[in-house]
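>> received
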Amino acid sequence: MLNELDWEFQRRDHRFVRYADDCMIFCKSKRSAERTFTNILPFIEGKLFLKVNQEKTEVILLTKTTFLGYGFYRYKGKCRFRAHPKSVAKMKENLRKLTSRSNGWSNEFRAMKLAQFIRGWVNYFKLADIKTLLTKTDEWLRRRIRATYWNWKQWKKVKTRYKMLKQLNVPEQNIHQMANRRKGIWRSA
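>> returned
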């Protein structure tokens, strides 16, 4: 349906990206972007008979927009991708649900679901610069997993904690300190 629009953009030498019905046209200045917008709108509505949502359509700087969960920034004169902060917040919320202690899942099932989610998310955002984000998220997620796997709330006595930590191959110098700790799960993990 929108092939004619793509051909029109190419005929007019516009740089653009389109996925399904979402489209971005790139211009060098705000003035040229506004001119392009006013010139392309009659083509879309008049020739293709499509309705353009005026509330969602806007002329905006590239660094202030999102497209399919990606954010954009400039580095050394080039446009680079990153995961938008809203996408990162949504990812962390999903990880919280997957590592919840109250969902009644076995550790094997939880590990499988986590692996599926992480693999899918990383593959979707593989074009983005997410190395530092993944490093920080990995640290946070490992701590959540430790808090989930440990039955710290069930090990109420120091003797039980000592015995169970020994079974988990915790270094001997840390067992005494951790078994006598009165802090909560997150601090202990």
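>> The chain has a mean pLDDT of 86.
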